[in-house]
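Please check what follows.
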Amino acid sequence: MVLFKFIKKLIFSIWKETSPFQAALITSLMIFILLIIIFSVVQILVPFTYIAI
């Protein structure tokens, strides 16, 4: 829960303290990195669950 509050505060502070273009750029980079992390975790977990079955 603390992580979600941190992310929410980070996004709102980015949008409050920067220009709209910079905020959109930073937010899109954060979303891109988050998608890469999710994809990587799935690629790591799927083979292990297949081996366990």
Remarks:
- Residues 2-52 form one domain.
- The longest helix spans residues 20-52.
- The radius of gyration is 16 Å.
